[in-house]
Design goal:
alpha/beta; Rossmann fold; 2 domains; six-stranded mixed beta sheet; two-stranded antiparallel ribbon; globular
Length: 286
C-alpha cells in the first residue's frame, strides 16, 4: 500500500495493521513470522546460553560453537525510539517524515504484538531520552496511542548521550526512526554508547528525495525546522555544493556506523513501508 494512501486514512492503528498484514503475507519459509521471529537456524554461542544447546556434531566439522534456534522461539525485548526533533516535521509531496515514522513504528509494534514480545517506546527531543511507554501489560495499545499524539519540535543535540535506560546488557532489539541528520556527531555518539554484543540496533534513516538530490530550481526560502532560521537562495547556485555535501555526509555516516549488530537502513518518503520492514527483517542476523 502506498504511503500517501496510508496517511490519507488518518488512522494510525488501521494503517499499522494494514502494513503489518502486508508484511506477513510477504514473508515465506518461516512457521512464525514477525520481528520476534527466530527462524530455524544456527547462531554463535553467547555467554549465558545453555551449553547443551550447542550442536557438537556440527562443532566437529566446523570447529565453531553454534546453537540451534527453533522456529517458535521468541524472547526478545523490543524498544522503539522515535526522533521528535523539529526536523522530523519535514514534508515532501504531502508526506510528513514524522507521520511516515509513526506508521513505520506502529507497524513494527503490530508484528511484535502478534509474537507476544515485550515492547516499550522512547523519544528523543531537546537532548533528552524520554520513556513514554515502559514494557508491561497493554504496552502495545499504549504505544499506538502515544505515537498518535507525539509532536516534533526543537533540536536534539547531546554530544555525549549516556542514558541509564540503555545500559542493560539484556538481549534485545532496538528500532530507531529518525532523519539522522546531525550538527556534530551526536547521533553517532549515541549509537556507540548503546551498542553491545547482545543488542541489535536497526536504524531507519528517513529522508526525502529532494533532501538527497536537491531537485529544485529558482529562488527558495529555506527554513531550519529546529532553529526556525530562514535564508533565501537560488537553488541552482548551491545545488552542486549541497549535493556534494550531502553525499559526503551520508557516506561518512555509513562508515561510522560499521558497528557490530548495528544496521543502517536508508529510506525515502516515497518507499512503501511494508517493503521497508520486510527488507529490514531479512537483514537481521540473530
Amino acid at each position: 500500500m502506498l504511503t500517501t494512501e496510508l496517511i490519507k486514512l488518518n488512522n494510525l492503528q488501521l494503517a499499522g495493521r494494514l502494513v503489518s498484514e502486508e508484511v506477513m503475507l510477504g514473508i515465506h519459509g518461516s512457521k512464525r513470522s514477525g520481528i520476534g521471529t527466530e527462524f530455524e537456524q544456527y547462531r554463535h554461542y553467547e555467554p549465558g546460553d545453555d551449553p547443551k544447546r550447542i550442536d557438537w556434531k556440527l562443532f566437529a566439522r566446523t570447529q565453531k560453537h553454534l546453537v540451534r534456534e527453533s522456529a517458535t522461539e521468541s524472547n526478545l525485548n523490543i524498544r522503539f525510539v522515535l526522533d521528535l526533533s523539529g526536523s522530523m516535521n519535514y514534508l515532501e509531496k504531502s508526506v510528513s517524515r514524522l507521520h511516515y515514522c509513526k506508521i513505520l513504528l506502529a507497524s513494527l509494534a503490530y508484528l511484535g504484538y502478534r509474537q507476544s514480545d515485550k515492547m516499550s517506546l522512547y523519544t528523543l527531543q531537546n537532548g533528552d531520552l524520554q520513556t513514554l511507554v515502559p514494557s508491561g501489560k497493554q504496552s502495545f495499545q499504549r504505544i499506538l496511542y502515544t505515537l498518535e499524539k507525539a509532536e516534533a519540535s526543537g533540536p536534539w543535540k547531546n554530544s555525549n548521550p549516556k542514558f541509564p535506560e540503555f545500559q542493560q546488557k539484556q538481549k534485545e532489539l532496538i528500532f530507531i526512526a529518525s532523519d539522522f541528520l546531525q550538527a556534530d556527531n551526536e547521533w553517532i555518539q549515541l549509537i556507540r554508547n548503546i551498542a553491545n554484543p547482545r543488542r541489535d540496533i536497526v536504524i531507519f534513516q528517513v529522508l526525502g528525495e529532494d533532501e538527497i538530490n536537491f531537485n529544485l530550481n529558482g529562488f527558495y526560502r529555506f527554513r531550519d525546522l529546529e532553529t526556525q532560521k530562514e535564508i533565501e537562495l537560488q537553488a541552482e547556485a548551491v545545488k552542486a555544493e549541497f549535493k556534494a555535501g550531502m553525499m559526503a555526509y551520508l557516506e561518512n555516516l555509513e562508515n561510522a556506523l560499521q558497528i557490530p549488530n548495528v544496521s543502517l537502513i536508508r529510506v525515502t518518503l516515497n518507499e512503501p513501508i511494508a517493503r521497508v520492514i520486510a527488507e529490514s527483517l531479512k537483514k537481521r542476523k540473530f
